[in-house]
Amino acid sequence: MEEPITDDARHRIAFYENADFSVCEGIYYQPPYSPDQKKVKMLLMSFPENILLPEFDEIKTRIYREVYQQKYPAKNK
Length: 77
Prior knowledge:
alpha+beta; 2 helices
């Protein structure tokens, strides 16, 4: 989920929060889709329970490994 910096983003977050999702505490960056793009700061949301930092870091690592085939978060840009 994108950060709440636009009205649309705030409405989207509120929609999921009204469905009992929670914004996770940690920092997450979506890797760039191509070398000429920058990584994007995002919010992860969880359901039904809020995910705290120790578990968040494990989940974030798993996302990078399984979804993006990266060992660690992207460090470029």
